[in-house]
Amino acid sequence: MTVALPLRRLFVHSLDDRKAVRHQRAKELARVRRALWTIVHRLRYPAYRDAALVRRKAAEAVARVAAYIQVSVTSDAQGVQVSWQLDHDRLRQEAQFDGIYSLLTNLTWRQAQARTIFRHYKEQAVVEGRFKAFKHPPLQVRPLWLHQPARLESLVFVVLVALFLFALIEREARREVQHSGQVFTGLRAEGRDHLPVTSTQLLAAFAPLSLVKQRLRVGDEVVDVLTPTTLTPIQAGTSSCSARFQYLCRAMAATNGVKSSTVSRMTTP
């Protein structure tokens, strides 16, 4: 049984994509020219007196841009000659479509306008990033050492809750930067702190932070006291953030583990 679904096709012209495609094409053509000139310079070697070998080398050099370059390899009494020609008409024809791509959707005009569909398409990178976080550290649902379906479902649910907190920390950090106008310094190398902050960087910054559990004996009473370790300059920078983000940071630090130590202190009742 065949079901026909009405689809809409949206054409998008991206100036950034056009610039990137043309830059990549220019780099590839420059690489091919260098490779062909290298073959020409090696024609004086005995190994390159074989026309079949030269044709194979030339074909490998222009494989990625064979539509734009025609290579000719000839052989006569003087040896093997290599020549090539760039198809400018084909290049101009291809350049007309640089940066243009289409999107297919089954949403009607009443359900979503073109701007909404384009925004959904651009947001797919965020969803794919969450899938990556789900499968890699610090969450990393795999490997699974469980076999019963109920336990597998429970583990995946716990990881999904952790993924929710993972995304919430990142959102609150970026909101904090947007509202305060100040970036978190020291999270990225080479002075790239102006780039959007991620939860992975925040978790790495708070990884050394732990809670020291002290058990104090006061008379006949035993009291447990949790004390955080000394904050680094990067961790201390969150002290000027909003109370909600500070709470998330403290919760994140608490998950790094608790170092236990027992201290007995006798006091006069």
Which key phrases capture this entry?
269 residues, alpha+beta, 9 helices, disordered C terminus
Question: Overview of this structure, please?
Answer:
The longest helix has 32 residues, at 149-180. Among the domains are: 15-95, no CATH class; 206-262, no CATH class. The protein is elongated. The protein has helices spanning 15-41, 51-61, 88-95, 114-122, 124-135, 149-180, 199-206, 233-236, 243-254, and strands at residues 8-13, 69-76, 79-86, 100-105, 211-218, 221-228, 258-262. With 269 residues, it is α+β, with helices and mostly antiparallel strands. It is built from 9 helices and 7 strands. Helix 6 runs antiparallel to helix 9 (243-254).
Characterize the overall form: elongated
Helix and strand string, N-terminal first?
EHHEEHEHHHHEEHHE
Report on the biggest sheet. 3 strands, mixed
N→C terminal distance? 86 Å
The proportion of residues in beta strands is 15-25%
Radius of gyration: 31 Å
Number of helices: 9
Strands of the widest sheet, in order across it, are 6-5-7
**Low-pLDDT residue spans:** 256-269
Give the helix level as a range of percent.
Answer: 40-55%
Mean pLDDT comes to 81
Beta strands, count: 7
| Secondary-structure-derived class | alpha+beta
Tell me briefly what this model is:
The chain is an alpha+beta fold and 269 residues long. It has nine helices and seven strands; from the N terminus they run βααββαβααααββααβ. α1 packs antiparallel against α2 (51-61).
